[in-house]
Amino acid sequence: MKKSIFIIVLLFSSIVSFATETKIIVRAKAKDAKFIGSSLGGAYVIIRNKTNNRILAEGKTIGSTGNTDLIMNIPKERGNSISDEQAAKFLATIDIVEPTFIIIEVISPFNNKQAQSKVSTELWLIPGKDILGDGIILEIPGFIIDILKPRTHNYIALKSIKNKPFEIKANIVMMCGCTINKGGVWDSENIEVKAILKKNGSYLKDVTMSLTETNLFEGTIKLTSAGQYELIVYAYNSKSGNTGVDKVNYVVYE
């Protein structure tokens, strides 16, 4: 019995001794924007062995959104990096014995559930052959939209809003948290923002929303009757293909 245990321990030790530390950098980058890092709560990275689905490493990207000129303005040539030392990343050190086919999943933005997406890729990881520099970059499409007004499940007296403009407000940023301004790197003029209003489950009207200050889009409607309302705010950029949506429900009562 002792001899069997000894042999098992010996075999296990041999396997461990042959395992090689292999480093890999994973980054999450917003489509048409910058890296997703600490300022937004990070992107969550999971690296799995595809054969048995075992998690080899997991954690959040940490760091800045990166250098705007390097990422957005300087024409990219083959071999040139778009990341700097501060750019957000997840660095994993994985012990493997032989070439291992892995799945990399990125869930982002981790702290904004209504805008959250999961993207993934697959590749071979070879013992001792680090993947550093820019590493593996996964692109996250979309916008983060937060409806600020009206509030979710708010009860509003009809007499308080009748014959008055009813305000709609939404905060919209890129998936890295990068700001949207008129004429800026992320130009509000290129983004269509509208609110779709429904009453008691039926379509009522569309409302065009305009930028009033950095990231803030506003519009007004007139509500003339009580009911259960649903408000859907969307953003759409035809050039990049980015889209985003947020929804709230509220009640207007007599």
Describe the protein's topology.
Blueprint: H1 2-18, E1 20-30, E2 44-49, E3 55-60, H2 68-73, E4 90-96, E5 100-108, E6 117-125, E7 131-140, E8 143-149, E9 155-157, H3 158-161, E10 166-174, E11 192-199, E12 202-208, E13 210-213, E14 216-221, E15 227-236, E16 243-253
Parallel strand pairs: 1-7, 9-16
Antiparallel strand pairs: 1-4, 2-3, 2-5, 5-6, 8-10, 10-14, 11-12, 11-15, 13-14, 15-16
Give the overall pLDDT as a whole number: 93
Oligomer: single chain
CATH structural architecture of the largest domain: Sandwich
Question: What's the overall geometry?
Answer: elongated
Low-confidence stretches: 9-16
CATH top level of the largest domain is: Mainly Beta
The number of distinct helices, counting runs of at least 4 residues, comes to: 3
Supply the helix-strand structural class.
mainly beta
Helix content: 10-25%
Sheet with most strands: strand arrangement: 9-16-15-11-12
Characterize the largest beta sheet: strand count, sense, and whether it forms a barrel: 5 strands, mixed
CATH topology descriptor of the largest domain: Immunoglobulin-like
Radius of gyration of CA atoms, rounded to a whole number: 24 Å
Q: How are helices and strands ordered from N to C?
A: HEEEHEEEEEEHEEEEEEE
